[in-house]
């Protein structure tokens, strides 16, 4: 009994069929590198802040490596890791926004040995906690949004619709809280 094997698909053809996978790979890798830069920028912060940025960077670089392997072998990522990646990205963006627009994270980012509270004032070019909204944070969030777009595009249609509805609901909630002056 003779079987006919399909000819192998050249690597360039496989990668051409997965532009969203390549976009997710590049965005996650770049976001990981930017989080490594954030480690250096926040070295004067408490260790927990530095370790958080390092953990995020390693997670994003690991995910980028995994997507690169999937793209090179012509495989499609499973749905659950894509949803988890999208949820983690949304969480990181929301955490960034909370840190830039409220004082909710002040207790976590202040040195533990400080016995007296430190008053922060809002100055032009700074956000609620007095932490400047610099180029590194803005660039990281921009890259993460591109990654979120790519991760969402890789989802099956039914899951993609539910994911986008959830992201939209979070956006509406964020605007509603902002309009109400909460949290502040």
Task: Please provide a brief summary of the model.
With 184 residues, this protein is mostly helical.
Structural key phrases:
68% helix, mainly alpha, 7 helices, 184 residues
Overview of this structure, please?
- It is a single chain.
- With 184 residues, the protein is mainly alpha-helical.
- The protein has one domain.
- It is 68% helix and 0% strand.
- α2 (19-41) runs antiparallel to α3, α2 runs antiparallel to α6 and α4 runs antiparallel to α6 (135-153).
- 19% of the residues are buried.
How are the elements arranged and paired?
Layout: H1 11-16, H2 19-41, H3 47-73, H4 79-101, H5 106-109, H6 135-153, H7 157-179
What is the H/E order? HHHHHHH
Helical content class: 55-70%
Rounded mean pLDDT score: 81
The beta-strand count equals 0
Strand content: under 5%
By DSSP (H or I, 4+ residues per run), the number of helices equals: 7
The main pleated sheet reads as: none
The number of domains is 1
Gross morphology is flat
Structural class: mainly alpha
């Amino acid at each position: 009994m003779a079987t006919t094997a399909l000819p192998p698909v050249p690597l360039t053809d496989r990668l051409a069929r997965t532009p969203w996978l390549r976009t997710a790979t590049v965005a996650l890798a770049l976001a990981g590198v930017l989080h490594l830069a954030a480690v250096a920028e926040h070295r004067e912060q408490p260790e927990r802040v530095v370790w958080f940025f390092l953990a995020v960077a390693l997670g994003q670089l690991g995910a980028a490596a995994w997507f690169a392997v999937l793209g090179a072998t012509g495989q499609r990522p499973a749905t659950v890791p894509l949803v988890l990646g999208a949820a983690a990205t949304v969480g990181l963006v929301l955490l960034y926004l909370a840190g830039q627009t409220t004082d909710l994270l002040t207790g976590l980012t202040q040195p533990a040995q400080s016995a007296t509270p430190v008053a922060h004032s809002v100055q032009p070019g700074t956000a609620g906690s007095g932490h400047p909204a610099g180029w590194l944070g803005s660039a990281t969030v921009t890259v993460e949004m591109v990654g979120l777009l790519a991760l969402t595009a890789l989802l099956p249609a039914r899951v993609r619709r539910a994911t986008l509805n959830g992201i939209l609901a979070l956006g509406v909630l964020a605007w509603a809280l902002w309009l109400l002056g909460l949290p502040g």
